[in-house]
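Note to self: keep these together.
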Amino acid sequence: MSTADRSGTSRLWCPSGKAEAPESVVLGVRSGQNAEVVYLADPVPARDVLPVVPKDVEPTRVLRFASHCVSNCLHRRGNDCTLVERVAATPAAESRSVPRCHLRTQCKWWAQIGVDGCHRCPAVATTVVEGDDLGVLVADPSTTQEQLDVWIAKAASAAC
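Structure:
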């Protein structure tokens, strides 16, 4: 089934979108100890929120934005999003429930990989925090599945 068929629309949204895109909306706020996304019940236009973010704070450090999925994205391979493929390759939190999200019916990640993307979405950071080696790998469009597998295996063996 094509992305357009599954989602019911041919204009899908990226849940890790650009704040400066004209149609951009705030998807959620990064909060708590793990800085995971807490989703808003309704979208808020980014243009209404960005002016109140302090100048010394990168908006993507505290907010997650959604904007249209575009064909010239660095994470695009044909009709697929390679970012969500890399996100899906990372270990999911054990007890994470599927978050309530106003974007789901028009979400590129949902259309491409379904609920698996939703389980991991709250942990995705648009701005990678210093020292987050896995986040750097996932965000890099050139990262291969092999590289992710090696990093994850090393981290798992170090945790034992």
